Amino acid sequence: MAKGWESKSVEALAGVYQSIPRPAGLNTPDAATLDRIRQKETILLSRTRIMTQLQSAENPRYRELLNRSLVDLDAKLAAL
């Protein structure tokens, strides 16, 4: 195989991809919308983790901390 063969192949594929016509009404969210979606998913994952820990927590202080964390995450979700 000749040196540089793969890079030439990638360049050719990139050229083909760019020449494909795309529909005008393509729904691509803007950067701000994508950022809000990522924030929401991160908060939901954190909330799921805290709920799991809350089910197995026995220490009352730790349970209180987890409950306060849930309240905080719920407030952040409501703000989004």
The oligomeric state is single chain
Helix tally equals 3
According to DSSP, the number of beta strands is 0
User: Low-confidence runs (pLDDT<50, min 5 residues)?
Assistant: none
Principal-axis shape equals: elongated
Sheet having the most strands: none
Distance between the termini: 54 Å
Helical content, roughly?
A: over 70%
Structural class: mainly alpha
Q: For the CA atoms, what is the radius of gyration?
A: 23 Å
Feature tags:
0% strand; mainly alpha; 76% helix; elongated; 80 residues
Characterise the protein shown here:
By secondary structure, this protein is mostly helical. Helices cover 76% and strands 0% of the residues. It contains three helices and no strands. The protein is elongated and about 60 Å long. The mean pLDDT is 83.
Short description:
With 80 residues, this protein is mainly α.
How would you summarize the topology of this molecule?
Blueprint: H1 5-19, H2 31-56, H3 60-79
Helix pairs in contact: 2-3
